[in-house]
Amino acid sequence: MNIKQWLVTQIASEASISEKEVDCDATFDQFNLDSLAIVSISFEMESKFQLENVDPSLFSEYNTINKLCVWMENQQ
Question: Where in this chain does the record put each Carrier domain (predicted)?
Fold first, then answer.
């Protein structure tokens, strides 16, 4: 599974929406994710993609799935 698809799946699950409803250019705020959801996804990112110290603030700095994917690809 690629990074983008993985994030779409995680966002859809946390936001209780279908994957088809996830717009990769929409800001994370638009999915109404709470801080616990962001922390959960950050933790899963570390585990799934062997990243260290994925700070939940990345979801503010790289505020869309597409932007976060670029950051993640540069980390690997």
Answer: 1-76
The pLDDT tens digits for 12-60 are 999 999 999 999 999 999 999 999 999 999 999 999 988 888 899 999 9
- Nearest-5° Cα angle at 72, 34 to 60: 35
What's the CATH number of domain 3-14+23-75, 2.40.30.130, 3.40.1180.10, 1.10.1200.10, 3.40.190.10?
1.10.1200.10
